[in-house]
Amino acid sequence: MQLSLFTDSSDNYEDIILSLQEVYFNKILNGEKKYEYRFNFCKGKSKAYVYLPKNKQQIAGVLYLGTPMLMTKKDTCDLYVKCGDGEYAVMDDWIGDRKDCYVIPIEKAIRFDNPIKKEELKKYEEFLAPQTYLLLKNRLVLKDFLNNYEKQKGNEYVR
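^ thats the sequence. predicted structure below, dont judge the formating
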């Protein structure tokens, strides 16, 4: 198959809505956080629309996430320190008694100058505020809305 100059690189990504605390999204945008850490996650690359819960309740941007790596607790803690994401004891405590977790490289971050408020998202009956993440593959109207919003409103931060 011949590659097209017009191929959308996001075609290789699973579209999701990812719940993320605002403090961590800001660290990603500032270049302070290079990986996302999760106990359950998609198997391949993801395009994650970042939903800020609690008092924000809005989609504030998009993260392009690389292929998750299932890593042992020790390897995760070592990487966490090595890449500058934080202190060993913090990650060790967060993982707790689990043996491993997914380490997901952050490839690119996009911030919306005008986040999408929950009131606007509720217009789409397909929308649910995620506890961790929400797959969009069967929520095509919402997925199209988010993709178009990203193209029109995103400020790209290349990593």
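Confidence is low (pLDDT under 50) at residues 1-8.
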